[in-house]
Design the sequence.
């Protein structure tokens, strides 16, 4: 079975930094696009950043210049380095990967379990 496990969330003061990581494990043939989303209470889930298999990066306007997305294909990992954090960044952050399964050779969009990021004084 394939699982995505996230880590790195927590409580930080405004202006602080956190680094989120998401690692996929299981019978994986390959991984294509990866991304990070977030969802605050009472709000829709929104795209934060994405990275393609060719290392092309896209960012939401509200994180440009503050967040950096990266991937390590050898470790099946996508990371999100968050700097200059603001209270409005408070949300549950979810990783997402497009994974090609070894057993079926079909592609699935899979999600991590979510990790809480809280920015507060």
Sequence:
């Amino acid at each position: 079975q394939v699982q995505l496990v996230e880590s790195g969330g927590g409580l930080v003061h405004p202006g602080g930094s956190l680094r989120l990581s998401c690692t996929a494990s299981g019978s994986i043939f390959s991984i294509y696009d990866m991304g990070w989303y977030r969802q605050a209470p009472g709000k829709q889930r929104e795209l934060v950043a994405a990275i393609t298999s060719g290392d092309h990066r896209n960012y939401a306007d509200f994180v440009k210049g503050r967040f950096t997305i990266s991937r390590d294909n050898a470790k099946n990992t996508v990371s999100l380095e968050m700097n200059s954090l603001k209270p409005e960044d408070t949300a549950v952050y979810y990783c997402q990967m497009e994974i090609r399964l070894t057993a079926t050779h079909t592609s699935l969009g899979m999600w991590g379990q979510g990790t809480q990021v809280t920015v507060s004084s």
Q: What stands out?
A: The longest strand covers residues 28-39.
